[in-house]
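2024-03-11 09:14:02 DEBUG pipeline.ingest accepted 1 chain
2024-03-11 09:14:02 DEBUG pipeline.ingest length=468
2024-03-11 09:14:03 DEBUG pipeline.predict start
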Amino acid sequence: MQTTLKELPESRVEVQAEVPPKDVERAANRAARAMARELRLPGFRKGKAPPSLVIQRLGFGAVLAEAIRDALPEWYEAALLDAAVTPIGDPDIDMVSTPEVEGEPLTFKFEVGVRPQAELGEYKGLEVGREEKEADEEVIDTEVDRIREGFARLEPVERAAKEADSVLIDFEGFVDGQAFQGGKSDDYLLALGSNQLIDDFEDQLVGASPGDEVDVEVSFPEEYPGEPNLAGKEAVFKVKVKEVREKILPELDDDFASDASEFETLEELRADIREKVGAALNSRAAEDFRIAAVDAAVENATVEIPDEIVTARATERWERMERQLAQQGMDPNMFLQMQGKTRDELIEESKPDAERELKREAVVTAIAAAEELEVSEEEMVEALAHSAEHERTTPEKLLVRLRENGRDAVIREDLLAQKAIELVSDSAKAIPLEEAEAAKGKAEAAEKILAPEKEPEAAGKLWTPGDE
């Protein structure tokens, strides 16, 4: 495929692409085979007529129109790869010329939004706030308690059940006096307060003693995920309490530490937890520092982003969320109902994050170009190691396949971005977070002082640097 690229205003480009005759023919034959399923031609069973005969019968134009509808997404993606364009939002596609007979190329063009350009300011040696965190003793206590819970034992007691006890029960549920499917269980061990069963079930067993028989009255929710015929229904569970078991936690001493870990003393166990929690906290602090360094470079740069591009990116972010929700088995519309918002409202709310994301990408890309950063063959192979293992091939073979499809550019762009981020963060000077926030506050106050007087009709509009 041959493409020509034309830059347009407002962070948009126009790409014109010529589809070779062989690709047009392949798409037409594929469409003809699909159309043959609905045709009965003399001498052929339904759906078995060859593509050439289908084209002869229906006409090349009719088959080509169907082929374009099916193949245009594939051609569009190939044109993006050939023109090295990373799109933002949906394209506006027009046909330039379509072949009248077989053996001719097809030409189409499209306009689409792209990442905005950045005019760089200072991006090396920036002062950036960094918070050095230490593990809070309460966090260590919580982790010790979690480990301790794992070594707890349950012992039967002859008394009424209390919150945090467990009860061994038999139960059977009834709706309108009739037992229902899935409502019966024997020797069920229930931890009171764990919310394992329907709301209010466990609360009604607090105070019950071994041998007691209790009628537990509950209401199934209107949107009960189990049996649909139980939704919104009142039910009574006949419960027999067979045992009450008290949770016994091990003593917090050296014996517990040696049983629960490879350490001989409790203090050694706590020291290990302190070190691991501290490492995790500072790993997060390091990542926050990297992001803050890039954001500092963004503050020094000039990036103009049209609202249309911001909206397109915000829409892409929501569509990505929709796919993630679907993969987790949740209907995106149900998610919207839970949020009490419409799709458009969530997209509008995410526009500030989308704009911030676009500015970061623009500045990082510009830094990579300004520094003439490069990605080696070894770095490409290393980056593909995990994907190659998942696809049961070698990184080298996967890279060859990606190059054949023109998709290696995506990997290279990601690696260049990582290098640019490392360049900015490695050169940044860490200062206490409080000092950085104070400096930012002073800068914002200075901007307000220097802000021009607003016209009466502009009252209520937030002034930002660069406003006329």
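2024-03-11 09:14:41 DEBUG pipeline.report The longest helix spans residues 266-300.
2024-03-11 09:14:41 DEBUG pipeline.predict end
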